[in-house]
Amino acid sequence: MMTREEAIALFEKQLTAAQVVLDSGFGSNPGENDFLYRRRKEMAEIALSALRPVSRERVGKVWRGEWEWYDEEVGSPLEGIEREWGWRCSKCKVVLPDDFDDPDNPPAMRFCQWCGAPMTDEAVEMVMERLEALYDNRT
Q1: How many other C-beta atoms lie within 10 A of the C-beta of residue 44?
Q2: Beta bridge mates, 88
Q3: In 10 A of CB 121, how many CB atoms?
Q4: In angstroms, rounded to a whole number, what is the distance separating the alpha carbons of residues 99 and 42?
Q5: Which of 66, 52, 71 is nearest to 112 (CA)?
Q6: Helix axes 4-24 and 32-51, enclosed angle (nearest 10)
Q7: Measured distance CA(86)–CA(25) in Å, rounded
Q8: Per-residue pLDDT averaged across 69-88, rounded?
Q9: Model confidence over 3-59: pLDDT tens digits?
Q10: Which of 39, 79, 84, 104 has the fewest CB atoms in 10 Å of its CB?
Q11: Lowest pLDDT segment from 3-12, 78-87, 119-128
């Protein structure tokens, strides 16, 4: 059986080889080989992203949310216009209950209770610890 490190090395070689062929144009059949090498490169990139551990930067960039204050007018002139405000998740846009309607006091919740997005640095650290524990158990 192949180890994770061996699989990563293999896919890195596949990625490099596909990129060299695409960059050089060597052996290009009109369209057919280019398509195959682009597909081979894409498959190697997907495999590498699945095999490599998740970084703190990726967790922060992809999953991190924020409590954002909104103050909007909704409705139409025919039906009437109302003003709505409050705190909502920047990821799923779910609005918190009226208990959290103070614009000067952001919610202290570390995670969005609807989508699970980490909302603080501490929450991102908690997610990373869980992911690292899962990664350690897989190796």
Answers
A1: 20
A2: 68, 95
A3: 12
A4: 48
A5: 66
A6: 150
A7: 56
A8: 91
A9: 777 777 887 888 788 777 777 766 555 566 667 777 777 887 777 777 666 666 666
A10: 104
A11: 3-12
